[in-house]
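Our platform keeps sequence and structure together, in a single record for each protein. Such a record has a labelled line for the sequence and another for the backbone structure tokens. Nothing more is needed to write down the fold, since each code stands for a local backbone conformation. For reference, a complete record is included directly beneath this paragraph:
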Amino acid sequence: MSRQPTGRFAASVIRFRRDQSAALAVEFAMVLVPMLGLLGAIFETGIVYFKSQQLQVTTIHASRAVLTHSLANMTYQNFIDKYVCTWQASGVVASGTLSKSFDCSKILVDIAEVADWSKASTSNSFYSTPPAASSTISMPASGHVAVVRIVYPMPAVTAILTGGILTGITLGKTTGGEVTYNSRWTHLLFGVAAFRVEPT
């Protein structure tokens, strides 16, 4: 038979068993981490949708330079600085270009030419071997189909909350809709425009 606590120790044990004042703090601590994860996911989803829409609008605006034969002897970097992301080169966000929330140095662009629509590719797979920024753009011929693709890799915010920011540790992180880019899970935002080039 176990001995029952007596005296001052017994009174302390009884008070500890009856004390409910810390229950709320314990319950709050239990739900805090999943709540922060949910808030992070909500903010991240909103940012991804907002930036995706902005990238698509910019792609459509920038592709007019291809449509109207304005790329003579222009490199991909010149194209980015003039039509896609002007603020890092000039300090000013031109109308129809990306805002200062985008890092212009991360933008990848591909301008392809195909003879007809059946051969047009709108895949984002070119990000694995993108054209060099210093290479000159080959202007698509009149009457041919041009496909302008712009990609922006955006690291996932919720990786901080789920451990994915640490190499090799994911702690059950969901990676749906992301790709591995520069050894990190990343949202690959993608803008595309396809059209037949106007005659000169």
Notes: The first helix runs from residue 7 to 18. The chain has one domain: 8-196.
